[in-house]
Amino acid sequence: MKLIAGAALLCAALIAAPASALDKPAGEPVLTVTGAVSQTNDGGNAVFDMSMLEALPGRSAKMETPWTTGAAEFSGPFLREVLKAAGARGAHLKVKALNDYAADVPAEDAELDTILATKLDGKPMSVRDKGPLMLVYPFDQDKGLYNEKYFGRSVWQIKEIEVLP
Amino acid sequence: MTMGFSPDGSFLRDAGKKTVILQGFAVVLTCILVLLFTDLARRYRLLEDGIRENALWSVFQLDREARTLSFQLKDIVRDVEPGPKKIKDLSLRYDILYSRINMLKDSRFDETFEHDPAVREALLEVRDKIIGYASLFDRIQSGYKPTDADLLGLNDQVETLVRDTGDFLISANNHFSTARADNRDMIIRLEGTTALFLSLLLASVVFLVVNLRRQLKVVREAGRNFELMAEELSDAYKAADAGNRAKSQFMATMSHEIRTPLNAILGTAELLELSDLPADAASLVRTIHSSGEALLEIINEILDYSKIENGKLELELRSVNLKALSKSTLEIVRGRAEEHGNRIVLDVPEELMVPYVRTDPTRLRQVLLNLLSNAVKFTRNGTVTLRLREFVRDDVLIVRFEVQDTGIGIDEAGIAKLFQPFTQVDASISRKYGGTGLGLTICKQIIDKLEGELGVRSELGAGSTFWLEIPTKIAEVISDQPPAARSPNELANLPSGHVLLVEDNAVNQQVATRFLERLGQKITIANNGVEAVEIARRERFDIILMDMQMPEMDGIQATRRIRAEVPDVAPIIAMTANASDDDRRRCIEAGMVGFESKPITLKRLRHVLETHLKPGDLPAAVEEIAAATPAPVEEADGFSEARRNELIEALGEDVFNELVETFFEDAGQIMESLQHALGGEDAILIDRLLHTLKGAAINVGLNDVADLAHSMRDSKPTIAGVEILNDRINAHRRLLVA
């Protein structure tokens, strides 16, 4: 139910968005959104470089995670904004990491203030430091998220998001 | 019956103790169980610890990334000329591996290994090795092209790393497996303990329930026993009460029985006094008379007491002039006081705050009279003072009377016994002074009923002061005036007046007429209520004597009419064979000022006239007349010789015989009507006929007929009952009219 509502909202947002094509990334590509996307700039995919991502609306928040010592500040664009920019349209997301780790994330999770963190404590994240991108749930906003279910979905070293129907 | 309470009681106490212990036990067990469950829950959480699972996962990932790096490195080493893409990928792999070690180093996963030194050591070794490659890869990332020697050296190192990470993975897994197994064992142990405690708790609860059930059973039994006991007590109380009532009834009956001949003695003596007797004989008669009166007083006291004990004391609150009441009461004892050489003092304030109060004057006077009589009785050549004071306490008007004497006084022990029934201060008192010892008990009861207090202050040889305080209310109507003090022995000076006699029965008419004539009164007769109203409207009377039950219109109704229609009406006095308190109240309510029980005696009639006839036509006072209601006179053959003598004395033998004849004629008619009425079941008519018969019979002294008629009024008369009545009348007729 929640899932469908989330998907519907997402769809509505996408339909309302202007159908302008995504610019080609100027810098090194860091994220590829594949699958059901309409705003493409590389064949059938939407490719983002770091500056494109950082231009999108997002948030910066201090929170505790199982992967950091003490509270750490994560900042980056909202997942929903990234998907919107890519013209994504689907109910499931398959978030893939550099090491081929992948997690299924329901599209409704994008409705939360989930971000694709580009910076940790104000510094860009290197691959050695879970970079370049990490899916960070708003653990600071909702304590209910602080469990294995969301830890598993918190993929780091993200390189690709596949949008599935 | 003996009740098994003591074993029940001890069982209940034991059971109560057991219950408390079991409850305590249950509470302790519950606490322990709660602790155990908390621990168990915590251990389950630990067993399911996601972080630890994740930690193991991370170690596995570390191993996997190390192997991937090793694989890629081998691929590059095998290549003669590796391309820059392969070198870049290798560099990325290293970064990923590095991120893994960082993950284990920085994050909270680290904590999980803290307690196992072997795991921790393996981790540190692996970490050091991985960080050791950093300088080479940093250079590669900044553009350095690694030489074959670099790569081969790295390959060797990575191979050992892979071995190490494999070992690390195994030892971490062992660590977690052991921990998990330990935890599971602990949980199983805890579960065992919990089960044990749970069964203990269950057992104690079962015990508790069993114990409570037993207790409940015993309580129920005890309740039943209590009920039984209460029933028995109630029965015993009833029996005791019945006994007491029987005693009172006996006293009342005895007093009646004694009063009957006594009345005859008194009547005869009175008549004797009226006749011309030689001086010595007159003195003897006076002695008979005064002794008889003393005896009557005692009997009246006993009657009063039994009445009070039966709870039949009724108060009649009226507007009372206390000053007048004090004066008149004192006057009554004046004669006796003077006989003892006592001086009498009335100490009443000039002006009372509240001259008229609401109280029961008859009862109050009775109490004062008793106290004054005592004072006079126990004082020789001294002073008896009646003091009246009034004050307000807690917004209530209190009237205080004191009767002070300078007599023999009472010691403390005597005072303690004073208000108990049938007790006098000591036995010698009754020998010397007489009396029943009931007087003060009656006084106390009356004052209690008036919600007041009665007390005494006394010293042996220095006199006594009896005091009483009663709360009263201010009376709204000022209608009570003191009766003029009169000596009951005073025969002369009776003013002559015009009397309206309202009476339907011929016999009663004749008796009353003769008596009144003898007392020098002018008489007009009205045969019923209607006539009475008519005559009263036409003529002026000084006094109206009113029969209660009459055909056409009864006395109550006639009184109301007369009082409503005739201005400045004469005092109306009821004359009736009914003498209950209820009748009395009804008469007073209707506006009558006095109440006389039948048979009317010469003395009572004279007293009525004395009280209500005043020279100079003063308005008559409200006065309780029937202080001592003469009981229906009875004798063995049901005929009152005293009454006969009284009548013959007043009316003459011829008139008496005429009277008797008239009665039997009347009675014949009444019986006929009665038999008739019995057929028609006219209850009101039957009652009236019986009442008339009773009144007439009592007047000629046929007391048994009167009683029989009266008793038949209480229950529905039967034909058999009427027969018996008829037989009785005929028996008298044979005897008297022969």
Automatic annotation (TrEMBL), chain A:
The root-end lineage is: Bacteria, Pseudomonadati, Pseudomonadota, Alphaproteobacteria, Hyphomicrobiales
Under InterPro entries, the record lists:
OxRdtase_Mopterin-bd_dom, OxRdtase_Mopterin-bd_sf
Sorted alphabetically, the keyword list is:
Signal
Range of residues in the leader sequence: 1-21
Specify the Oxidoreductase molybdopterin-binding domain's residue ranges. 64-138
Recorded superkingdom = Bacteria
- UniProt keyword Iron present: no
| Keyword Signal set for record | yes
Task: List the protein's name.
Answer: Oxidoreductase molybdopterin-binding domain-containing protein
TrEMBL record, chain B:
- What does the record give under GO molecular function? phosphorelay sensor kinase activity
The broad enzyme category this protein falls into is: transferase
Residue positions, PTM 4-aspartylphosphate: 547
Q: Which residues cross the membrane?
A: 20-38, 194-212
Phosphohistidine modification sites are 691
EC assignment: 2.7.13.3
One annotated Gene Ontology cellular component of this protein:
plasma membrane
Reaction catalysed by this enzyme: ATP + protein L-histidine = ADP + protein N-phospho-L-histidine
Q: Which UniProt keywords apply?
A: ATP-binding, Cell inner membrane, Cell membrane, Kinase, Membrane, Nucleotide-binding, Phosphoprotein, Transferase, Transmembrane, Transmembrane helix, Two-component regulatory system
Q: Where in the cell is it found?
A: Cell inner membrane
What Gene3D superfamilies does the record tag this protein with? 1.10.287.130, 3.40.50.2300, Histidine kinase-like ATPase, C-terminal domain (3.30.565.10), HPT domain (1.20.120.160)
Could you name the domain of life of the organism this protein comes from?
A: Bacteria
**Which part of the chain is the HPt domain?**
652-738
Whether Cell inner membrane counts among this entry's keywords is yes
Q: Name one Pfam family in it.
A: HATPase_c
Q: Does the keyword Ligase apply?
A: no
Membrane topology recorded in Swiss-Prot or TrEMBL:
Multi-pass membrane protein
The Histidine kinase domain, residue ranges: 253-474
Give the protein name, as stated in the record: histidine kinase
From the broadest rank down, the organism's phylogenetic lineage runs: Bacteria, Pseudomonadati, Pseudomonadota, Alphaproteobacteria, Hyphomicrobiales
